[in-house]
Amino acid sequence: MDKFKVMVIQGPNLNMLGLREPNVYGSMRLQDIHQQMKVVADQYGAEIEFFQSNFEGEIVDKIQECLGEVDGIIINAAAYTHTSVAIRDAISAINLPTIEVHISNVYRREEFRQKSLIAPVCAGVIVGFGPVGYHLAMIGMLQIFDQIKAVKNAQQADKE
């Protein structure tokens, strides 16, 4: 595996970034966030794909499609973070490194937003850093990939 591949999955209403509650989510649009993530991926030599849906079932389908196709997932499940056992189960089932991202600091918001159903099945969670949280997630995922590569190299050396 020479080139790692990341799938970025965006949940409901994230297609409205830049327009929706800029006092909470900022003024950066989703395509701008994705472009910045692509720059980081390109610098590392990783592939990156993006998917956004307002529908829970489509998000579950996309997570399942990642099995055997990508090496890691960065997900902002948005409101489904707090309600979707189905998304949690899909992440758990495919057993890929997954990083959960939230633009706002959910712990400073309504109580119902302070519980993530998917966090326990993720490698890590990044909240409250605005759009730069996606950049931090990319750095985290690339670190995970470096660790995976080191383990594979060590296993290969043991075989020789």
TrEMBL record:
Enzyme Commission no: 4.2.1.10
InterPro entries reported in the protein's UniProt record: DHquinase_II, DHquinase_II_CS, DHquinase_II_sf
Pathway membership, UniProt: Metabolic intermediate biosynthesis; chorismate biosynthesis; chorismate from D-erythrose 4-phosphate and phosphoenolpyruvate: step 3/7
Site positions for Transition state stabilizer: 20
Membrane-crossing segments per the record: 117-137
Gene Ontology terms, MF aspect: 3-dehydroquinate dehydratase activity
Record's keyword annotation contains Membrane: yes
UniProt: substrate binding residues: 76, 82, 89, 103-104, 113
Active site residues according to the UniProt entry: 25 (proton acceptor), 102 (proton donor)
Catalysed reaction equations from the record: 3-dehydroquinate = 3-dehydroshikimate + H2O
Superkingdom of origin: Bacteria
Gene3D superfamilies, alphabetized: Dehydroquinase, class II
Record-linked CDD domains: DHQase_II (cd00466)
Pfam families attached to this UniProt entry: DHquinase_II
Keywords: Amino-acid biosynthesis, Aromatic amino acid biosynthesis, Lyase, Membrane, Transmembrane, Transmembrane helix
Family: Belongs to the type-II 3-dehydroquinase family.
Its job: Catalyzes a trans-dehydration via an enolate intermediate.
Subunit structure: Homododecamer.
Name of the featured protein: 3-dehydroquinate dehydratase
Organism: Campylobacter majalis
Taxonomic lineage of the native organism: Bacteria, Pseudomonadati, Campylobacterota, Epsilonproteobacteria, Campylobacterales
